Amino acid sequence: MSGQIKPMTERTTRRQFLNNAAATATATGFLGFHLYPTQVSARPGPNDTIHMGLIGCGAQGSGGMRGFMKLPGVRFIAVCDVNSARLAGGRQLAGGEKVAAYHDYRQLLEDKNIDAVLVATQAHWHVPITVHACQAGKDVYVEKPLGNSIGEGHHAIQAARKYDRIVQIGTQQHSRKHYQQAVDLIQAGRLGDISEVKVWDYYNRAPGRGFPPDCEPPKELDWEFYVGPAPYRAYNPNIYYRYGYDWYKLSGGGHQVAWGVHHFDIVLWAMGVSWPTKVSALGGKYAIQDNREWPSTLSGTMEFGPGPVARHGFVLQYSMRMASRREQRAHAKCFLGTEASMLLDRSRLSVVPEVAGGKKSNPAEGLINPAEEVIAKDSAEEMRAHQVAFLENVRQHVQPTANMETGHRATNLGHLLNISWQVGRTIRWDGENDQVLDDPEANALVTRPYREPWTLEV
Question: What pTM, to 2 d.p., does this model score?
Fold first, then answer.
């Protein structure tokens, strides 16, 4: 690496940050993320310990690190967070004082002893850190969703290719056995011709978290660095807590992005398609009243062209609400075919045969007594299968099936619902070129510009 990046203090002001960045730009000759020359790091062999670094020590990052640490041949040697309290907790969890701790993730990436990183920040940091890590010669396990806008995804795809890095997204359902069995059954024609897929996410978080005013961030948090490349906004207590950040444009896209990516990953995989042609969404804050920026109730419809198990195309219906969870299987999807239907969630897959023409069915009875059912193994070991797959891919230098392309496409569907909701009309989508057709206002929302001095260059 040319030049030296200066660490940021715990309470760096915006002016100080910009001045430091400008000084770094002068020293290195450029500004933004293209800070590392192309590196070919020494890859860990089959019996070598994989040294990892954690970027983002919150609940998701700490939980992910715990999972990796239970697997053989893994050691975390560095952690990073812009919250000094979380950084201290992550360091202690990883092994104490022998573990390096960084406020600035770019300094962690300078460590040549690190083979791979776990990126568990908020969504607006996922792509820039992934790109930067690839440039630094690190393999990457990045939590979902991939990016806070559609336009970011291409950079992650290009970085993985250009720097020949193993990059996997944290859509862990992709590695669970009963989901793989579900995909096999669908693609084998077990359900017949599928015309509709229903997907839903339900919680009950009523009445919401209210309307606290913007205020000064806690002393342990470097809010300026936390905001990073996103458009700046003042700190608000409702943004900076688990299950809160998803609902603000700074750091998320609502459940349709944060949870929807899991469902959409499986749907696109099972149906053998990559993107919809039309998208429409309606929603609002009908039951929950607080200062979140995305709707707490949303219903959307996406139209897809023909595919391997939908010869004439199909419709995907997505429904999300945060004020009622009456369904027993509250995060699930149902594939509706001419021969049978499949209800699928993290607990099981259930196949219910279609009744013969002219006869009436009893849906409740059919779902209670499915003709075929696979119960998922309720174990931490199976949930960690995604981490095992990543480590094996790193050792063998093989690209994962849950790669940047699948992550990009699965993330896009939630963003498309948001774009339709924001402009208030149906949009037509060109998935080949990632652009909205004949609608400049909607197309302008495909990419969010980065705040100076941050740039995204592969």
Answer: 0.89
